């Protein structure tokens, strides 16, 4: 999985090279920075194991458990056993941790009430078309610097998906890409407008429309935060099947399906 925009902060907090480092790590400021780094990692890469968190942030097992226990107690994170296909080696499946809806909500949904009121007024004045036009314009602003995919190859398609993830991360969506079977998934681990999108699905629809336009192929939305999933996940086929006469739509839909035997861990089951 490629991660875009992960903040590598707080790595020194778990090291105990000398007495001075131990004192610094014990201060409230350093503790808060480390907690923020754990939250950021849960946001961008969750579900994730405690071992992986420790390795990424340079934290001791005890340090990881302290932060995870605090987040679970506050309702900001939850733990679940890894699925069999995720287990490496023998033994009891490791726990995987991820943010809850409450945890994501505390990251900030600025001006939700104001935005919702403005959208409702826009609909009252201009109807559904005005909402759809606004949603398309908003996404167009995010992807303004991206050119449409010129030629379909697995490498070029994956690179374009990475480019899309990068601009959405810059817009606050904490987006990543990962290879899944014969396709690649664009995963948006945070949505700064998810509460508004619950009432106005046109915002999500405009994103999907932009993905299809830039990639030049049928892409499939598998999950959305607005619907209660832990991430907005969009499947992009890396191999575009030749269109047969009179069956273009069917060919596109076949190309967009995830490969058999793959599991999407960003869907509702992860919650």
From TrEMBL:
<feature type="region of interest" description="Disordered">
    <location>
        <begin position="244"/>
        <end position="271"/>
    </location>
</feature>
<dbReference type="InterPro" id="IPR036390">
    <property type="entry name" value="WH_DNA-bd_sf"/>
</dbReference>
<protein>
    <submittedName>
        <fullName>Putative ArsR family transcriptional regulator</fullName>
    </submittedName>
</protein>
<dbReference type="Pfam" id="PF12840">
    <property type="entry name" value="HTH_20"/>
</dbReference>
<feature type="compositionally biased region" description="Polar residues">
    <location>
        <begin position="260"/>
        <end position="271"/>
    </location>
</feature>
<dbReference type="InterPro" id="IPR050313">
    <property type="entry name" value="Carb_Metab_HTH_regulators"/>
</dbReference>
<dbReference type="InterPro" id="IPR036388">
    <property type="entry name" value="WH-like_DNA-bd_sf"/>
</dbReference>
<dbReference type="InterPro" id="IPR011991">
    <property type="entry name" value="ArsR-like_HTH"/>
</dbReference>
């Amino acid at each position: 999985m490629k991660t875009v925009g992960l903040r590598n902060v707080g790595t020194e907090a778990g090291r105990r090279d000398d007495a001075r480092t131990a004192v610094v790590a014990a201060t409230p400021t350093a503790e808060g920075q480390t907690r923020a780094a754990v939250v950021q990692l849960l946001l961008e890469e969750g579900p994730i194991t405690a071992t992986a968190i420790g390795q990424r942030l340079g934290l001791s097992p005890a340090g990881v458990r302290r932060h995870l226990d605090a987040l679970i107690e506050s309702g900001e994170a939850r733990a679940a056993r890894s699925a069999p296909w995720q287990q490496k080696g023998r033994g009891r499946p490791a726990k995987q941790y991820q943010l809850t809806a409450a945890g994501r909500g505390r990251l900030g949904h600025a001006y939700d009430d104001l935005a919702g009121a403005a959208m409702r007024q826009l609909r009252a004045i201009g109807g559904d078309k005005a909402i759809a036009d606004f949603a398309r314009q908003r996404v167009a602003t995010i992807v303004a610097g991206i050119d449409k995919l010129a030629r379909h190859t697995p490498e070029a398609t994956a690179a374009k998906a990475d480019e899309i993830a990068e601009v959405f991360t810059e817009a606050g969506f904490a987006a990543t890409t990962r290879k899944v079977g014969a396709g690649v998934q664009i995963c948006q681990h945070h949505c700064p407008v998810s509460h508004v999108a619950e009432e106005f699905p046109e915002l999500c629809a405009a994103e999907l429309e932009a993905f299809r336009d830039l990639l030049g192929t049928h892409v499939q939305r598998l999950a959305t935060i607005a619907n209660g999933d832990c991430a907005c996940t969009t499947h992009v086929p890396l191999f575009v099947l030749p269109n047969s006469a009179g069956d273009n739509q069917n060919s596109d839909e076949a190309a967009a399906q995830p490969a058999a035997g793959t599991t999407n861990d960003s869907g509702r089951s992860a919650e």
